[in-house]
Design a protein that fits this description.
This protein is mostly helical and about 160 residues long. The protein has one domain. The chain has seven helices and two strands. Strands 1-2 form a two-stranded antiparallel sheet.
Length: about 160
């Protein structure tokens, strides 16, 4: 295969977190492949940025799941789920996530809004999952680490 003449390189090392993404751009590299790669970079960063700031996403994740539970995937249900952001439970989830740091509240509220929208099955930005449904040749990267249930399989085989 010919050597790429251009690259998109992305590297972050912050404390114990390392993210490395690289794509070589060749003559036959499609715009979809480049966009897919860039969407992967964004996905890597989005997962970490709140934790780096000290925002605990777990309370907001739990609230978002409860807000969309038993909802159908349509705009009326989405509207109703977003309306739950004005409730006391949502404010408590945001407060818990920020551990009393009022400066972080607007950022946590942004996370919670996005989490509700994505929990309803809608996306607010381009991501690899959506792109892989449109372009079948774009494959999602495999999850690193142990397979879920690997311990159970080992116990069963022993």
């Amino acid at each position: 295969m010919d050597e790429p003449d251009q690259y998109i390189d992305f590297l972050i090392k912050y404390k114990d977190w390392i993210a490395i993404k690289r794509i070589g751009i060749r003559e036959n590299t499609t715009p979809q492949e480049v966009a897919f790669h860039l969407a992967g970079i964004r996905g890597s960063m989005d997962k970490k940025v709140y934790g780096i700031l000290g925002i605990k996403t777990e309370p907001m994740d739990a609230f978002a799941e409860s807000a969309v539970k038993d909802q159908k995937r349509n705009y009326d249900s989405l509207s109703a789920a977003i309306a739950t952001l004005g409730k006391q439970e949502a404010r408590k989830a945001v407060d818990d996530a920020c551990s009393g740091n009022k400066d972080l509240k607007p950022l946590a509220e942004t996370y919670l809004l996005d989490k509700i929208i994505t929990s309803m099955g809608y996306d607010t930005f381009l991501n690899q999952t959506a792109m892989s449904k449109i372009w079948k040749e774009l494959k999602l990267p495999k999850q690193r680490g142990r397979k879920a249930g690997a311990k159970k399989e080992k116990e069963i085989s022993e």
